[in-house]
Amino acid sequence: MSNRRLRFVLLSCWAALLGLGLLLFCLPLGGWLRWGMVALLLAVLLLALWWRLGRGELDGERLAWLPVGVDPATPVILWRLAASADTAPVAVLHDGQALWLYAADGDQLQALAEDITHWRGRPPEAALLLVAPALCQQLGALHGEVAAWRYGLQLLRQRYGKRISHWLGLYVPGQQLEAASPAWRGVLYHPDQPAQPAAALLERAMTRLDLAGRAAVADVAGEMRTQLVLRWAQTQLLPALCDLSRGLPAMRLHGVLCGELPGQMTSSVLGQWSQQQATLQLKNIAHAGRWPLPAALVPLLVPLLVQPQRLVAGWRSLLHAIQLAALALVIALACSYLGNRQLLQRVAADLASWQQLPAQAGSAERLAVLAQLRADRALLSGYARDGVPLRLGWGLYRGQQLLQPLERAIASWHPPAPPAPPVVIALDSLSLFDSGSARLKPDAGRALVGALLAISAHPDKRVLIAGHSDNTGNSAANQRLSEARAGAVRDWFVAMSKLPSSHFGIQGYGDSRPLVPNDSPQNKARNRRVEITLLPDEPAH
Hints:
The chain is of the alpha/beta class and 541 residues long.
């Protein structure tokens, strides 16, 4: 797994872990909604990992041309040869210092830059155009290749900005090389510095050459050929580098390099131009089929892009992880603030409802508010005893300040006194009625007057008159007799008071509710009775 994919996996898992923490401990979500969001988050994580790792396998197939074991921190240089050559350059060359990728046209230039960016997370470090004027036979074709290269560089600049430095290399015609790689000389600017106009660099190269690797010029003829190539570039190549007719900006470079290449032709654009200028005449020397590259200049081309880039990528991933953690912390603090505010507002509203409850409020309403206060107290006491949950924590919890007001409000509740038992007046049936009769005796009023005084003293109380008998005779007859006696007593009360008959209720129980067992004449006498009950007042609503 590449470092880039590893960073993606670690960041994705870190983001998922933070999301799980928020869902499980911070966000105020219900049970099914919370677990549904957790399942969705895990599904998104697995989908992202599957997509990224699957894309990595596709990238592996796409980058099958890469040499085995190439370090992603190796500098990558895209280069193009503008020359008429029978021998094609090596497409991929890894010399141990840099990875040289040959771009045959503009489309391949874009594709290579995109592949390298997918592979290691950053674009190539440099783009190098090499020109061999001693081997090119048509100046128009050379200008067309330069224009195509400039167009490709413009597309790279639009996508990657100025992170890819641009270089120009000129092959100087020479004899057979003794060394494996020629000495390259040039005018160089650090890649971190702004690129310079091509015209200014060529002019400076004409007056002073910076020797790469501090190598020295061995012969005067070689110096003359170098000056010849630079003068040719100023007059013949520079117009193609600065042509604005195609809508492209003038080419800006970080350096111009000159290196010796064995092989030259008198019919080349350089040979024809030198004949017109009556300067150094070229000879026909066969090209050796090898295109030396300025490998010795790699430390100067990309001095800060080997190890620092890896460090920058690591620090960028760490910065992303810190940003994700900061975002999660902000969300957790916001949830804690909102949750604490809602808790305080709810408890304060319950306390206000209790304090504003009118004195005449019914017991049911008072008990409902009291139950809510007790629930609030239980909740806050649990937080004080077991700890505040994370969704209310982070130093924002203020619920403890409401515990004492809740205790005082609950302690102020005094349950109402139980209602007084109903007043029951029991009268002996023998003092009111003859045996088996429902007609009041003439002197029954002396027994009923006491009950009448009690009823008159409580005109707001309803009166229930119930007749009872012993178990002598038929139960149905006893029930009818007891109800008739209750009705006779009610009629007497209505006649003797100003209360309507609806104020009284009658009921005949017969022998169904004896006070004592009907096992003796004395007990049977006690069970034959008329009970007058003053019903308690109904509660106000």
